[in-house]
Amino acid sequence: MSRRPYKPAGRPPPHDFGSGHVLVGGMHAVRALIETGRARSVLVRAGVREARLTALLDRAHAHGIRIQELATDVFDQQAPLDLNHQGILAEARPQDVQPENALAPWLEPLKNPLLLVLDGVTDPHNFGACLRSAEAFGCAGVIVPKDGSAPLNQVARKTASGAAELIPIFRVTNLARCLRQLQQDGFWVVGAAGEASGSLAQAAHQGPMVVVMGGEGSGLRRLTRETCDSLVSIPMAGTN
């Protein structure tokens, strides 16, 4: 397949990312942004010619997305720290948090989705880490309450390492009411509680499922806890 020529490698002027755009790295993340039409341009590190990367650049070219090849040192200056970029970055429009009324239409075509609900996670670093984990574990989306939750700011986006631009996030007014509606729609709602005797594996459900995690320190709120179908503990690696 013919491909549009790259711009020359070397030390070009600083890349103009435009106001409000973010950089997302890694082949999986960049592919998702290309296919959803949210990638504005793609940066690739010179000398990286892995077959998967070549195929991904072909997809970007087919979508009419601008591709720029950068010398290694220039590329590394552009890449966010601690980002597993795999030699490729996409500049994308930041994803906005979706309103509550967008949740039901979005869920309708999905088959047995797994959702993560964050009940009062207030630290942006923790919020970003939860988004990163949710995307890695195949969650279809994340739900947060309107009040008492961390904003999706630059700290959260950076900690999420691109997941904030890939996984839909919905903000709801009344979390307990939202969970009850999901139960009526066939979801099995499982809350994470340190004192619970059952494990997440034991609570596995063949149909649509919601995992609810509480905020820092206080854990699940009382009403949220009472709404859950079951409570489980999630053991952490490295602990006895």
Write the layout of secondary structure elements.
Elements: E1 22-25, H1 27-35, E2 39-45, H2 51-62, E3 66-70, H3 72-78, E4 88-92, E5 98-99, H4 103-107, E6 114-119, H5 124-136, E7 141-145, H6 154-160, E8 169-172, H7 175-184, E9 188-192, E10 209-214, H8 222-227, E11 230-232
Parallel strand pairs: 2-3, 5-8, 6-7, 6-10, 7-8, 9-10, 9-11
Antiparallel strand pairs: 1-4, 2-4
Helix pairs in contact: 1-2, 5-6
Structural write-up:
This protein has 240 residues and is of the alpha/beta class. It has 2 domains: 22-92, Ribosomal protein L30/S12 (60s Ribosomal Protein L30, Chain: A, 2-Layer Sandwich); 98-232, SPOUT methyltransferase, trefoil knot domain (Alpha/beta knot, 3-Layer(aba) Sandwich), CATH 3.40.1280. Helix content is 29%, strand content 22%. The chain contains 8 helices and 11 strands. A 7-stranded parallel beta sheet has the order 5-8-7-6-10-9-11, sandwiched between helices. Helix 5 (124-136) runs parallel beside helix 6. The N and C termini lie far apart (55 Å).
Share of β-strand residues: 15-25%
Principal-axis shape = elongated
**How is the biggest beta sheet arranged?**
7 strands, parallel
Measured distance between first and last alpha carbons? 55 Å
- Any guess at the CATH architecture of the largest domain? 3-Layer(aba) Sandwich
The top-level CATH class of the largest domain is Alpha Beta
How do the strands line up in the largest sheet? 5-8-7-6-10-9-11
Q: Would you list the SSEs in sequence order as H and E?
A: EHEHEHEEHEHEHEHEEHE
Radius of gyration: 20 Å
Offer a concise description of the structure:
This protein is an alpha/beta fold and 240 residues long. The protein has 8 helices and 11 strands. It folds into 2 domains: 22-92, Ribosomal protein L30/S12 (60s Ribosomal Protein L30, Chain: A); 98-232, 3-Layer(aba) Sandwich (Alpha/beta knot).
